[in-house]
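Re: your question about Mediator of RNA polymerase II transcription subunit 4

S., sorry for the slow reply, the queue was backed up all week. Below is exactly what I fed in.
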Amino acid sequence: MKLIELVTHKDKEIKETLKLAAEQAEIQKTIDELKCAVDKRDADIKNLQKNLKEAETILATAIYQAKQKLTAINQASSRKISSEELIKFAHRISASNAVASPPTWAPGDQRRPYPTDVEMRHGILGKLSDLPNNNPILQSQGSYGEPMSSNRAQSTGKCNL
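Result:
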């Protein structure tokens, strides 16, 4: 009889332990779901931080440029130039035909109003590269095999302004 009571008592303990294990399994499931939700929110927060940092950079750049423009506007306002002087200056620039196409050129004309690469190479600057190595100008600037210094333009046929 005592053995049956012990088995019954152990059976109750096992059932209580199993019930407690089931409750703990539910709690663990809830904990896992919450951890998953926290990880998702962390990812959202990191993404939001990244977007905010990009926005901050863009806004900082925009503010810097706006301040520069305001400074330029204030500087321009303080140094006003008369319209008559401006017209005289514009006339001096346009009189040299430096900013306009040739008078014979019209829209739709196949010729370009500016020189092409081929025309530039056939010009004075393009012909400098055809000079021999014993030219005094080239000797002062270095030979073809030596690298040119950074303050001298290379003769590539293109204008470096």
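The two ends are 110 Å apart (CA to CA). The first helix runs from residue 2 to 78.

Happy to talk it through on Thursday.
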